[in-house]
Protein: TetR family transcriptional regulator
Amino acid sequence: MSRERVVGEIVSKPRSRGRASSGAAQSVWLRQPPTPRNEPPLSRERITEAAVALLDEEGMERLTMRRLAERLGAGATTLYWHIDTKDDVIDLAIDAIFAEAPLPDPGTGSWQENVVALLSGCRDMLLRHPWSAALPLRQRPSIGPNFLAWLEFLQATLARAGFEGRQVQAACWVLYNHVQGSTASQSSLRWTSDERTAAQERLTLQKDRYPTLSTYEYMLDDDWEQNFRLGLKYLLDGLDAQLAPGA
Structure:
């Protein structure tokens, strides 16, 4: 199920000109976009597209409002008219990439197959944007329309399967954390094959202390795809068991 990117929904409070004050809504999604003025044409859509491109090329640590303004061919003052903070930019960029995560057709396949398709598509999307590895470290919740549409599909799928109340929330977060943690680890770790081999040799020399890690060659395991899919199967099997009578 394809989706058009949505930018600028979920607004409930008026926006004051300039940067957010200490008493203003902290999320960009809870503030009104500014009214246009006679400046070089900028919009949330243009800013978001440029931010995603800059993040893809240079990563989260090099994103600054000045660099983003330069990429847009605008002054920093003009950019601040539209976006209050760097956190706002990241909020918009996160939501934009979630528009790339396809939503399966809920009318086909089992609930487990729908979850596998949903999380696999999300994993592919997150790996296309390696800077997303930093998302678990952020202290701001994602409440943009594209992310919420993705999360709505996941929770609706779990509810249709028969989960209720707290079960839906718990199952939702264990599945989301699996895909987020898996992709964050894969995007963040940068080991060469020589480094892996050297680390495993060191483990082997300490086999008495780390017998299991040595035996199963922990340091040499880099099959991220298989580990993700097998781990997801274990989670889904466990969740399915909770739906059995008397569970």
